Amino acid sequence: MATAQLNGVTIAYDDTGEPEPQAGPRPTLVLLHGHPFDRSMWTPQREAFAATHRVITPDLRGYGASTVVPGTTDIAAFAEDLAALLDHLEVREFALGGLSMGGQIAMECYRLFPERVTGLLLADTFPAAETPEGKAARNSLADRLLAEGMKGYADEVRDKMVAPYNEEASAYVHRMMLAAPPEGAAAALRGRAERPDYRALLTRAAVPALVVVGRDDTYTPVADAEAMHAALPDSVLSVVESAAHLPNLERPAEFNAAVRAWLTRVTAPHA
Asked: Name one Pfam family in it (predicted).
């Protein structure tokens, strides 16, 4: 793990697969975790792609080893942190992926600096703005996390995050959720409640895209993924069987195969 002081906070990150200077640059793959997780959720992907790509996986502000900022963290703040981190690492262009909240942050990155993004991976996410009911629910959950901590919430959503038949992944994800800082998770929930609608943006995306979803995901069902796939001009849809909301951990071999095929379609970015 490394850290960088950016935008007034400390961002922790892993930077895997950077070659020796004489070997020349590798394509860069950036992966953004969901809520309420941390960069370790991408361990199977870092290990799988480090031989061919420079893989950068940050802890978003409020999560993992990054600075916990209370209040409200909007989607743009996460995107601006990422841009600052990549500037710090002297990475200009990169393939960008995110899962759930991370996917929404990836869409915000494409809105703010599309010229830097060479490909989009959108996993178990959705582009629509929050409904009034959804806003109320996210703010209520934020209040609950601040009052009660993470355990009750983590226990309740465990079997929606990871299908219960994926026992090893379920246990790992539950530990990640329990370790999440309540203040950071609450701030992100309040920010997501006010996120913009990205559906029109997707229709203008001019890069190769991959949409992935677990067959048994109830948070972002297959129908949502199909709608994103239809909206994106150049996309492939991959439905991962026997997985729920975190197919990258539940079925890493199948998830990685889809990502590998997507990366062959992405123009190689350079650091």
From this structure: Abhydrolase_6
Here the tokens at position 57 are 């996986």
User: Shortest CA distance to 235 belongs to which of 133, 115, 139, 121?
Assistant: 121
Q: DSSP readout, the chain?
A: -EEEEETTEEEEEEEE-PPPGGG----EEEEE--TT--GGGGHHHHHHHTTTSEEEEEPPTTSTTSPP--S---HHHHHHHHHHHHHHTT---EEEEEETHHHHHHHHHHHH-GGGEEEEEEES---SPPPHHHHHHHHHHHHHHHHH-SHHHHHHHHHHHS-TT-HHHHHHHHHHHHHS-HHHHHHHHHHHHTPPP-HHHHHT--S-EEEEEETT-SSS-HHHHHHHHHHSSSEEEEEETT--S-HHHHSHHHHHHHHHHHHHHSPPP--
Mean pLDDT of 224-229: 98
Query: Is residue 270 a part of any domain in this protein?
Result: no
Q: Give the CATH number, domain containing residue 180.
A: 3.40.50.1820
Mean pLDDT for all residues in the chain:
95
